[in-house]
Amino acid sequence: MRRAAMALALLLSACAGEGAQYYADLQADLRARGFLRTERAPVDAPFTDADLIRNFRRIALYSEFRREGGRFVAERTPVHLSKWLRPIRIAVYFGASVAPGQQRQDLADVARFSARLARLSGLDIALLADDTAGAANFVILYANRNERVDIARSLAGTNAGFDPAILADLRDGSPDKICFANTFENPDRPGELVYAMVVIKAETSGLLRLSCLHEELTQALGLANDDPRVRPSIFNDDEEFALLTAHDEMLLRMLYHPRLQPGMEAEEVVPLLPGILADVKRTR
Fold first, then answer.
1. Angle at alpha carbon of residue 79, lines to 75 and 84, rounded to 5°
2. Radius of gyration, alpha carbons of the chain
3. The CATH number of domain 2-282, selected from 3.20.20.70, 3.40.50.150, 3.40.390.10, 3.30.1490.20
4. Position 157 pLDDT exceeds 80
5. 98-107, 141-150, 219-228: which has the minimum mean pLDDT?
6. 127: which residues sit within 8 A by CB, 6+ positions away?
7. What sections of the chain are H helices per DSSP?
8. 154 vs 108, more confident
9. For residues 86 and 65, is the Cβ–Cβ distance under 8 A?
10. What distance, in Å, lies between the first and last C-alpha atoms of the chain?
11. Residue 23: its pLDDT value, please?
12. Distance (Å, rounded) from C-alpha 128 to C-alpha 136?
């Protein structure tokens, strides 16, 4: 994977962006209807300890997709617990369609939000400079449709071992797939995350673009599912909340409690959750 990360900067070719107006209109429509809310602790969406425990199970111990025939198929599937143990080193790559001013804003957003995730999780997370980006194990791509297709084609021709389902995601032009994250586990320790790739469509802008960053980076830490019953949360495809909420922060802190280990199954995790939540609340 590292070889692929080192080459990504060279694979992003200059292509004219398309779809920006569609996403600008989508953002305006969502905001007009009261979605993409930015409150961290919305007063109209209180939650209890029982909600947190139930929602942790829904988000950390299920996936919204399964692999089938080289593609991701939407189906709620039980999974084991996944989390990072090693330091995370982030590299950000931009397609030529992303203007310099937008690149500076994106880098500032990545730096700010990754620092917040580090504080919440206790992980060692750092954003790499360009000259050390080849050492990244967490890659963020901002690319438009043509650039994503070019990347998929180039990666398919390497021996980096990319899953065909991931390449299909890169090529997917569906307008409703605004951004996505894929994670890779240690083959010698199931559940230990060792590499991640986040793709954010360069056609997005403003709050919609920032909401992608919040959701996909957090999901790539191990809170990978979306569920319509989880609220107030970004782990919900209804787009009610754009940014990480206090509820979501609690789920992340629970995931990175030392009693939870990669690869644990639901029957091992669930009995521990009340005690873990009590610990997390004591150290808030």
1. 125
2. 18
3. 3.40.390.10
4. no
5. 141-150
6. 90, 92, 107, 110, 111, 114
7. 2-11, 20-32, 49-60, 100-121, 145-156, 164-171, 206-219, 246-255, 266-269, 273-282
8. 108
9. no
10. 36
11. 94
12. 7
Reported residue count of the chain is: 284
Phi and psi at residue 27, in whole multiples of 5°? -60, -45
> Of the candidates 59, 78, 67, 48, which has an alpha carbon nearest to the alpha carbon of residue 236?
59
Domain ranges of the chain: 2-282
Instruction: Please write down the long-range contacts of 192-196, taking CB distance under 8 Å and 24 or more positions apart.
Output: 192/82, 192/83, 192/84, 192/85, 192/86, 192/262, 192/263, 193/82, 193/83, 193/84, 193/220, 193/221, 193/222, 193/262, 194/84, 194/86, 194/137, 195/1, 195/137, 195/138, 196/137, 196/138, 196/139, 196/220
Share of the chain above pLDDT 70, in %: 88
Q: How many CB atoms are closer than 10 A to CB 176?
A: 7
How far is Cα 117 from Cα 130, in angstroms, rounded to an integer? 22
Asked if 79 and 182 touch (Cβ cutoff 8 Å), the reply is: no
The two structure tokens encoding residue 280:
């997390």
The two structure tokens encoding residue 99: 């203007």
User: What residues pair up with 66 in beta bridges, in sequence order?
Assistant: 73
Q: Report CA-CA distances (Å) from 32 to 35, 204, 235, 239, 240.
A: 7, 17, 21, 13, 12
Q: Could you give the CA distance from residue 124 to residue 88 in angstroms, rounded to a whole number?
A: 6
- Higher per-residue pLDDT: 70 or 127: 127
